[in-house]
Structure formats: structure tokens, C-alpha cells
Amino acid sequence: MNYSHLVVCSIVFLSLFAGLQNFFIFGESFQTINISDNPGESDKPQIFTSNKTLHMIWTDKFEGNYEIYYSKIDNEFQKVSKPINLSNNNGSSAFPRLHVEDDMIYAIWYDYSPGQSDVFFAKSIDDGKTFLVQNLSNDLKASYNPWIDGVKNNVYVVWNDGCFIWRYGNLFCS
Question: Where are the domains of the chain?
């Protein structure tokens, strides 16, 4: 196991989580890259590596309400893609999660734009250039706590649905 990669990923996560909005990598010299590059609150990050590319998703309050953003850094850590607003609505969005397989990028979060929290899913088949977004839960009950995983482009999503009292909610899978 290559522990240096583990340390780098841990530092990235802790740095973004602590609100520092910076990405740290080790090499010949210490390098810092501001991923969100805005004056808003950037937090709740998640990272995923695939094909030597680092993919990132986080919650950002730059545009007035919490939105879900995606960006990536190429395999040479030279080029950071411009952050893409995945949620892009008037409601607050939270709890972003990410899964990547080759050029397929999948994101999940819950969003209050329908009036109560619903689970939203975004998919890119062109390595993050464009995303198709859909409401997975789309019901009258609160949907929250989404998680995503996958194997060979088969993606699995689970979430709670029903109410915010944990022992009474239902678990859904898509």
C-alpha cells in the first residue's frame, strides 16, 4: 500500500473540511491549489480518484444558498477544471457524495428545492464536461442521507425516506 497517497488524500479532505478551501500535494515543493476559488463557505468535501485524476465534490454557499459543486485535477496536478454547479437551484443542497468509473462520473445529494428534502442524482458520461440531473426520490416525504457506490458502471444508491426520526424512516435503494 502506498501510504503517501493516503496521506495526501487525508490532507485534502481535512483541509477542505476545515474550511481552508485549499488542496495540498507533496512533491519537490509544497503546492497549494484553491479549488473553490470564491469568498463563499466551501465545506463537506468528498474526493474520488480514477485513472490518475482526482475528482472532488463539495457544498458551497457562494451564490446565496448551499449548492453542490464538482471539479477535478488532471493526473499531473497541473490543471484544475472550473467548478460546475450540479444542483443549481433556489433550494439548499447538502450531503454530496461521488463515485467515478473511467469517464463516468456519478454524484448524489439531498436538496430542499422541491419544498422538502429529495435525493438528487447527477451523471456525466463525458468525463465531467456535462451532467444530467434527476430527482430520484421525488415523493412527498423527506428523503435524506444518500450514499453511492458502484462496480463497473453499475451504480447503487441508498437513502432514508419518510421522516427525520431515524428509527421510523424507510431505507430505499435505486
Answer: 39-173
| Beta-bridge partners for 34 | 22
CATH architecture of the domain with range 39-173: 5 Propeller (2.115)
All residues at 6 or more sequence positions from 104 whose CB lies less than 8 Å from its CB, including other chains = 123, 124, 125, 153
Widest pairwise Cα distance in the chain: 54
Residue 169 pLDDT > 70: no
What's the CA gap between 160 and 68, in Å, rounded? 20
> Using one digit for the tens of pLDDT, what is the confidence trace for 54-93?
899 999 987 788 999 999 988 766 778 889 999 999 889 9
Question: From the DSSP assignment, how many helices (H) and strands (E) are in the chain?
Answer: 1, 13
d(CA 167, CA 11): 35
